[in-house]
Write a structure and sequence with these properties.
Number of helices: 6
Keywords: Hydrolase, Membrane, Transmembrane, Transmembrane helix
Organism: Marinobacterium aestuariivivens
Distance between the termini: 27 Å
Largest sheet: none
Structural class: mainly alpha
Enzyme class: hydrolase
EC number: 3.4.23.43
Number of domains: 1
Shape: globular
Order of helices and strands: HHHHHH
Protein name: Prepilin peptidase
Number of strands: 0
């Protein structure tokens, strides 16, 4: 539900409020610390989280530095490192960026930037519906 709020806010105002990101961060950390599972229901070690964060930064930092990706999107992806395994996260990033590119080709956005978080939310929800690997 929180991802949906973030996606709608980003689609309307082209920004992601830090307050929503902090709530997602708190809930994600709480889940990991209290029930030892992520919000996606998988067990994540701190090494998995660190690997996910390094992967997110390696993949998205160039786009952020070129102003193709917003700071809110980058922070959202970093919080998602507390929810998904590294493989799930790479899959979500690949499919959400692909969907963003397709939407850019199909749509008539002109010079307007397309918000990324709705595509991230959609791919995250699809990932949550898939059975866990293994």
């Amino acid at each position: 539900m929180l991802l949906l709020q973030i996606a709608v806010f980003d689609a309307r105002y082209r920004r992601i409020p830090n307050s929503l990101l902090l709530v997602l961060l708190a809930v994600s950390l709480g889940s990991l610390l209290l029930i030892e599972r992520s919000l996606a229901g998988v067990q994540l070690g701190w090494q998995d989280i660190g690997l996910s964060m390094l992967t997110v930064l390696a993949v998205t930092l160039p786009g952020y530095l070129k102003r193709q990706l917003g700071a809110g999107d980058l922070k959202l992806l970093l919080v998602c490192c507390l929810v998904f395994t590294p493989v799930q996260l790479i899959t979500i990033i690949a499919f959400s960026f692909s969907a963003l590119v397709v939407a850019g080709w199909i749509g008539k956005f002109g010079k307007n930037k397309i918000p990324y978080s709705p595509f991230l939310m959609l791919c995250s929800l699809i990932m949550l519906c898939l059975p866990p690997a293994g």
